Amino acid sequence: MGITAPVIGWSFLKNKISKQLLLGWNIVELALVLFILINGILSAKFPFQQFGFEQPNRGINYFPFVLLPATIVPIVIWTHLSDIIKLRKKKKKKNILKN
User: Is the pTM above the cut of 0.85?
Assistant: First the structure.
């Protein structure tokens, strides 16, 4: 999904896709990121590990891979949440102006 971000962004800027489609894309992407984050946490070698007992996810404990859960994933989650909030506010403003 991350590879589609430049295409979706360019299409939105050129008015080729609607705000509803962009909102839906952001919601789907946020769900996928959260799914991957939860799977990564549950497969890491923690006391609450649920997956990958034969080969636990130890890579996220070492540099540079520790940057993924520590910085990159929170930035991606924040970006999608802020986009969803902004797109919903614009939609509400249009409804207020119509009334």
Answer: no
Q: What distance, in Å, lies between the first and last C-alpha atoms of the chain?
A: 37
Q: What is the DSSP code string of the chain?
A: -GGGHHHHHHHHHTT-S-HHHHHHHHHHHHHHHHHHHHHHHHHBSSTT--S-SSS-B-GGGSTTTTHIIIIIHHHHHHHHHHHHHHHHHHHHHHHHHH-
Distance CA 49, CA 46 (A): 5
Query: Residue 87 in contact with residue 22, Cβ under 8 Å?
Result: yes
Tens-place pLDDT, residues 13-42: 888 888 889 999 999 999 999 998 888 878
28's CB contacts (< 8 A; 6+ apart) are 1
The pLDDT of 59-85, averaged and rounded, is 86
**Which position has the token pair 């609450």?**
48
